[in-house]
Amino acid sequence: MPDAAEDQNQAETQNQAETQNQHDTQDQHDREQRHLAQEKKNERLVWWYLAYFLFGIHIIAFIMIYAVTHAE
Length: 72
Known about the structure:
The protein is mainly alpha-helical. Helices cover about 95% and strands about 0% of the residues.
């Protein structure tokens, strides 16, 4: 009889380990998805900052060109 109880305990332990591994794998997948989403958001923000910077540089250049051409 102790062998049957031992086998059952081993089976339960193995099932718990498999369940824990599944949870760990799911958690890792969720973390990776959140990281990728944040990385995509950050990359999009970088492009917006670059666009605003380049737009600002052109506005300043046009103002300077206007100032130089209309100077006396």
